[in-house]
Amino acid sequence: MIVSIANSFMYGGSRVYASKTGVRVNEWRVMNSIATKPGAVAADIAALLKLNKAVVSRTISTLKELGLIVVEREVGAKRIYLTSAGLEVHQRIVPLARLRMKELTRGFTAADTEQFLGYLSRANANLEGLRAYDQMLIDTVND
Asked: CA–CA separation, 63 vs 86, rounded Å?
C-alpha cells in the first residue's frame, strides 16, 4: 500500500509541477533540499533524499542546464545553490506541494495528520536499519 501511495503521489506531483514550472518531482526534491540547506554537496542531498548518487548527479546536471542551480567549486567540495530563477521556481512549487499534501490528508483531523506524519517520520528513520536487514537477508537466506 505504501508503494502505491508513494508512486501515485510522486507521479501526480511530477505532472503538476512540470505543467506549472517545467520541473519534475526529482528536480523539485533536489531543489527543495538545496533551498533548505544552501551550499549542500551532492552526497548530502543523496543521503537526505535517500536517492542513488547517480540520480542526484543527473538531476543536478538537468537543473544546471535549466539555470536553476549553480555549482561553486571549493577545495574538496562542489557546493550547490539555487539561482534567482531556481528560488522563483521553488517559491511557485511550495504552495502546490502544500495543497497536494492537504488533499492527500483530506478527511484527517489535525491530530490525524500529525500522527500520520509522525508514523512516516519513524518509518523513514527505520530505512537505514532496513537496508542493513536487507543485506543480511541477501547474505544469509538460501534461495
From this structure: 8
